[in-house]
Specification:
alpha/beta, Elongation Factor Tu (Ef-tu), domain 3, 7-stranded antiparallel β-sheet, 21% helix, 35% strand, binds flavin-adenine dinucleotide, binds FE2/S2 (inorganic) cluster
């Protein structure tokens, strides 16, 4: 489906991140994304941070277009198409969620859906500083066991969220690890999952144009992230030389992360 939607509400989540809610009828599942077009600007892929009822996206101001999205107000209009992409497997019973920065946007609805189906959810949540921790209260409200790390030590462990993983993976019998965040972080999460023999699933990002598997903008190895992902089992990613190192820029050139 493709439509023009008024923004129903906006919520400031962190100093750099807002959530936009809109009435967009198609059924969506956790992990999927939509293409959001901002009139007079560009179109960006955004994970659905709310997949039930009024849909939502949670956007961090990075470059010009995402900054423009964070400045939208209730009643402003955006173009939306989708949802696209695959989803997290909600069959796992005891899940470790590892979120870095805005990666929590795609993981929160997946964790809520799994929890509603009876799964136990533990969250390792990382950010640069306490005010940038995304959806900490939302994870707590669903009953998750939440562990926090901040780069500056303003709350929780001082340092990267990946430092929490060996202790968590040793003290619990997880049957899946779900992660989204900077690729360098996900490489470390995959390594921890391998050390503890827990299947790991990563939601990854690539530059996107069509969202439909046609233009090749989002390719990584043999995959198109828009249709084969964005959620991949770790064993498919870790063998790709680009993963954690290279991505395509808007012109299709491979550039460093
Ligand atoms: C499937 C998918 C889901 C996504 N979901 C979300 C989401 O839920 N919330 C969200 O905020 N964004 C999400 N993104 C990223 C989003 O589509 C844009 O890439 C991002 O908003 C930056 O766009 P821009 O044009 O404003 O910045 P650009 O002009 O592309 O970049 C500006 C600067 O930010 C850097 N940058 C761009 N993207 C990232 C990034 N992801 N991480 C770190 N640095 C970056 C660039 O290297 C550059 O230095 C998703 C992307 C994909 C493919
Ligand atoms: S965005 Fe065009 S193939 Fe994925």
């Amino acid at each position: 489906m493709r439509t023009v939607c008024p923004v129903r509400s906006t919520e400031t989540e962190t100093p750099s991140t807002i959530t936009l809610r809109f009435d967009y009828p198609p059924v969506a599942r956790p992990g999927q994304f939509v293409m959001i077009w901002i009139p007079g600007d560009d179109e960006l892929p955004m994970s659905l941070s709310y997949t039930e009822g009024s849909k939502g996206v949670t956007v961090k101001a990075m470059g010009d277009t995402s900054r423009h999205v964070t400045q939208l107000r209730t009643g402003d209009v955006v173009g939306i198409r989708g949802p696209y992409g695959n989803t997290f497997d909600l069959g796992a019973r005891n899940i470790l969620v590892v979120a870095g920065g805005s990666g929590a946007a795609v993981l929160a609805p997946a964790a809520e859906a799994a929890h509603a189906l009876g799964a136990r959810v533990t969250v390792a949540l990382g950010a640069t500083t306490s005010s940038e921790l995304l959806f900490r209260e939302r994870f707590l409200a669903m009953g998750a066991d939440v562990h926090v790390a901040t780069d500056d030590g303003s709350v929780g462990h001082r340092g990267f969220v990946t430092a929490l993983l060996d202790r968590l993976l040793t003290s619990n019998a997880f049957d899946a690890v779900w992660t989204c965040g900077p690729e360098v972080m996900m490489v470390k999460v995959i390594a921890a999952g391998e050390r503890h023999k827990i299947p790991t699933f990563c939601a990854i990002e690539r530059h996107m144009k069509c969202g439909l598997g046609l233009c090749d903008a989002c390719s990584i190895g043999p995959y198109h992230v828009c249709v084969d992902g964005p959620v991949f089992p770790a064993h498919r990613l870790i063998v790709l030389p680009e993963f954690g190192h290279l991505k395509r820029d808007p012109s299709g050139r491979l550039v460093s992360h």
